[in-house]
Design goal:
single chain; mainly beta; two-stranded antiparallel ribbon; 1 helix
Length: about 130
């Protein structure tokens, strides 16, 4: 991972650029997605099982622009992109069973995993941070 933050106009603006990558043979560092109970284990068995020679490769890149008019408020716009060689990220349906999407191999519900983060469609996040 590498990130660099650049400050402008006497710290009124900031730009952060960065990204990272992981190559994890055997997937021993891959966390099971935070779903509920046994569903997480079932999804992990299908997509994220740790096994020698079963690699996990992923990368991300992000850019963040901050406007800080005072020490108590920050306006932020951020864009990021994440991807993996296996369906690790949750799809548009999220990680709950509201839509009841069935897994063809497990014959029960499991999240619709994606190789690319679901935020890729918009790619941007806007936020206002307030410090009290």
């Amino acid at each position: 991972m590498a990130y660099n933050r650049l400050w402008f106009n006497k710290d009124l603006f900031a730009l952060t650029l960065g990204g990272g990558a992981i190559n994890n043979p055997g997937r021993y560092l891959v966390l099971i997605p935070p779903i509920n109970g046994a569903t997480a284990v079932l999804w992990a068995r299908r997509t994220s099982r740790p096994a020698p020679g079963d690699p996990y490769k992923a990368w991300d890149a992000s850019v963040t622009f901050d406007y800080m008019p005072s020490q108590f408020i920050t306006f932020r716009i951020e864009g990021n992109h994440r991807a993996a060689n296996v369906p690790y990220f949750s799809g548009e349906g999220g990680v709950t069973a509201a839509g009841r999407q069935l897994s063809p191999r497990l014959d029960r519900w499991c999240p619709d995993g994606r190789r690319i983060s679901a935020r890729r469609r918009t790619g941007m996040t806007a936020a206002m941070l307030v410090k009290f």
